[in-house]
From TrEMBL:
It comes from Croceicoccus pelagius. Involved in targeting and insertion of nascent membrane proteins into the cytoplasmic membrane. Acts as a receptor for the complex formed by the signal recognition particle (SRP) and the ribosome-nascent chain (RNC). Interaction with SRP-RNC leads to the transfer of the RNC complex to the Sec translocase for insertion into the membrane, the hydrolysis of GTP by both Ffh and FtsY, and the dissociation of the SRP-FtsY complex into the individual components. It is found in: Cell inner membrane; Cell membrane; Cytoplasm. The lineage of its organism: Bacteria, Pseudomonadati, Pseudomonadota, Alphaproteobacteria, Sphingomonadales. The gene is ftsY. The keyword Hydrolase applies. This is Signal recognition particle receptor FtsY. Its EC number is 3.6.5.4. Part of the signal recognition particle protein translocation system, which is composed of SRP and FtsY. SRP is a ribonucleoprotein composed of Ffh and a 4.5S RNA molecule.
Length: 306
């Protein structure tokens, strides 16, 4: 029998929740936590990659709580889960196809190695599940492997993909993609882009050019600029948000590779620090291992009370 999504999520976040449980161990006792215990709680949350802002917010909220039956480990974990959910709920927002006229253009960005190309395929699959027609555009022309990988996924999904010559102009691929998607009446066009951060200026110029081309064809496009983050990068993922917000005008996040990392708490740090929509999270390599983000379930899984 195949695992349920919550089982997979629990497995994916297991190291994160074990780390947090380990860090929280030994805190507890009376109906209210002492200042020293609250300091320990805050440190435990920071050590679990939830970040100083979220840790302070949760600490302050727990400080107000009265634990009628005593603050044992379970009660504290429950309280932490509730406060994490408070942080995550406002940013949980599925990626939706809303553009009119079609296509709805999603620009997908992220550093090489973040799982960007695979995530594009998984997003396409999510759209297909909602009966939308999808087209892909291989705008990362600097890595032949990226175009090849996207073609393989497109074949598996049965969706068309627009490609260009290796090292060619990404903006012209995007132009061809929008034209083809418009002619076919595709609901969504998902565009891969280069993930080079070594030269921010070059990347910024390239993305600006892509935006200009899109704007000429469809003034509303891109409708979404989605940044793919690799959870195993922990706090480095937050630095990537900083950079890509500046160079690409990120409108939402997808977090991948939550399977087996102890750093899943960075999801909470990102939500608290940036407030950007989190569209989906990925916990594995299979095509259906990326799902819309459920804040209450994720909060309970991180806190180990699911």
């Amino acid at each position: 029998m195949s695992e349920s999504w919550s089982d997979r999520l629990f497995g994916g976040f297991r190291k994160t929740s074990e780390r947090l449980s380990g860090n929280l161990a030994g805190i507890g006792g009376a109906t209210k936590l002492t200042d020293d215990q609250l300091d320990e709680l805050e440190d435990a949350l920071i050590m679990s990659d939830l970040g100083p802002r979220a840790a302070m917010r949760i600490r302050d909220a727990v400080a107000e709580r009265r634990f009628e039956r005593g603050a044992d480990e379970r009660a504290i974990s429950e309280a932490v889960a509730e406060e994490i959910a408070e942080i995550l709920r406002p940013v949980a927002k599925p990626l939706e196809v809303t553009a009119f006229p079609r296509p709805h253009v999603v620009l997908v960005i992220g550093v090489n190695g973040s799982g960007k190309t695979t995530t594009i395929a998984k997003l396409a699959h999510l759209f297909q599940e909602d009966d939308y027609s999808v087209m892909l555009a291989a705008g990362d022309t600097f890595r032949a492997a990226a175009t090849g990988q996207l073609k393989v996924w497109a074949d598996r999904l049965g969706v068309p993909v627009v490609t260009g010559p290796e090292g060619g102009d990404p903006a012209s691929v995007v132009f061809d993609g929008v034209k083809a998607a418009t002619e076919r009446g595709s609901d969504a066009l998902i565009v891969d882009t280069a993930g080079r951060l070594q030269n921010k200026r070059e990347l910024m110029d390239e993305l600006t050019k892509i935006r200009k081309v899109l704007g000429r064809l469809n003034p509303e496009a891109p409708h979404d600029v989605v940044l793919v983050l690799d959870a195993t990068n922990g706090q480095n993922a937050l630095q990537q948000i900083d950079v890509f917000k500046e160079v690409a005008g990120v409108t939402g996040l997808v977090m991948t590779k939550l399977d087996g990392t102890a750093r899943g708490g960075v999801l909470v740090a990102a939500a608290e620090q940036y407030g950007l929509p989190i569209h989906a999270i990925g916990v594995g390599e299979k095509i259906d291992d990326l799902r819309p983000f459920d804040p209450d379930l994720v909060a309970r899984v991180i806190a180990g009370v699911a």
